[in-house]
């Protein structure tokens, strides 16, 4: 991603399915912040194949879900997906980069309503997504993960580009 106005954001975890650099089955999303939005350029490949030559809808959904997880850096809250809806507007060819942009549409109490758009470098928007995330605290994760990993999620440099807000 060459845009100079973008601020790189750290992965959720090295093994995260969406953005973890150490997950061999992952999408390896590199995500940046652009004002109050987050963006990633994803190129689906043969690991993400659905129909011949096309990306699997689940892979597209996973990319959107993980990108929504980066809006949390902007909102400065910890939250998890309660509902995710993807509109598959057109087939997504393998091997062609698509930029996904996501942001907060509105907040109501613990409910974060998020939206995303996926557009090819040819200018064609091929999918959009909406999600409801619900704000949680560390008790949500504590029974399931290593204490150090849970703590790390809550001490990420989420506020390092606060000047942009
Ligand atoms: C997070 C760090 C980064 C990690 C990587 C990011 C990866 C991308 C994100 C994910 O993949 S997260 C993993 C997938 N998601 C989950 O595993 C979540 C599983 N679900 C839960 O644990 C609970 O359902 C949840 C914590 C989301 C909510 O349970 P709670 O008991 O805390 O809340 P509740 O059910 O009372 O709902 C909270 C609010 O949302 C509202 N709500 C719930 N479902 C709704 C719905 N369908 N539509 C509208 N509102 C809804 C509900 O009315 C309520 O409103 P109020 O706060 O105003 O009372």
From TrEMBL:
InterPro entries (UniProt xref): HotDog_dom_sf, THEM4/THEM5_acyl-CoA_thioest, Thioestr_dom
GO biological process, one term: fatty acid metabolic process
Swiss-Prot/TrEMBL catalytic activity: (5Z,8Z,11Z,14Z)-eicosatetraenoyl-CoA + H2O = (5Z,8Z,11Z,14Z)-eicosatetraenoate + CoA + H(+); (9Z)-octadecenoyl-CoA + H2O = (9Z)-octadecenoate + CoA + H(+); hexadecanoyl-CoA + H2O = hexadecanoate + CoA + H(+); decanoyl-CoA + H2O = decanoate + CoA + H(+)
GO cellular component: cytoplasm; membrane
Keywords carried by this UniProt record: Apoptosis, Cell membrane, Cell projection, Cytoplasm, Fatty acid metabolism, Hydrolase, Lipid metabolism, Membrane, Transit peptide
EC class: hydrolase
Record's bilayer topology term: Peripheral membrane protein
A Gene Ontology molecular function term of the record: hydrolase activity
One of the Pfam families matching this protein, by short name: 4HBT
EC number(s) given by UniProt: 3.1.2.2
Residues in the signal sequence: none
Subcellular location: Cell projection, Ruffle membrane; Cytoplasm; Membrane
Thioesterase domain boundaries: 53-117
Family: Belongs to the THEM4/THEM5 thioesterase family.
Family annotation (PANTHER family): ACYL-COENZYME A THIOESTERASE THEM4
Protein name, entry field: Acyl-coenzyme A thioesterase THEM4
Organism per entry: Prauserella muralis
Phylogenetic lineage: Bacteria, Bacillati, Actinomycetota, Actinomycetes, Pseudonocardiales
């Amino acid at each position: 991603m060459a845009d100079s106005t973008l601020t790189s954001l750290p992965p959720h975890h090295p093994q995260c399915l969406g953005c973890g650099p150490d997950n061999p089955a992952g999408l390896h999303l590199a995500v940046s912040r652009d004002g109050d939005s987050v963006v990633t350029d994803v190129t689906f490949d043969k690991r993400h194949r659905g129909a011949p030559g096309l990306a699997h809808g689940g892979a597209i959904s996973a990319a959107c879900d993980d990108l929504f997880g980066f809006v949390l850096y902007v909102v400065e809250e910890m939250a998890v997906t309660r509902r995710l809806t993807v509109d598959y507007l057109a087939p997504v060819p393998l091997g062609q980069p698509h930029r996904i942009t996501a942001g907060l549409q509105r907040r109501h109490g613990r409910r974060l309503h998020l939206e995303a758009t996926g557009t090819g470098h040819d200018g064609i928007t091929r999918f959009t997504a909406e999600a409801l995330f619900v704000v949680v605290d560390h008790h949500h994760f504590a029974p399931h993960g290593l204490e150090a990993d849970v703590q790390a999620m809550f001490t990420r440099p989420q506020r390092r580009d606060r000047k942009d807000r």
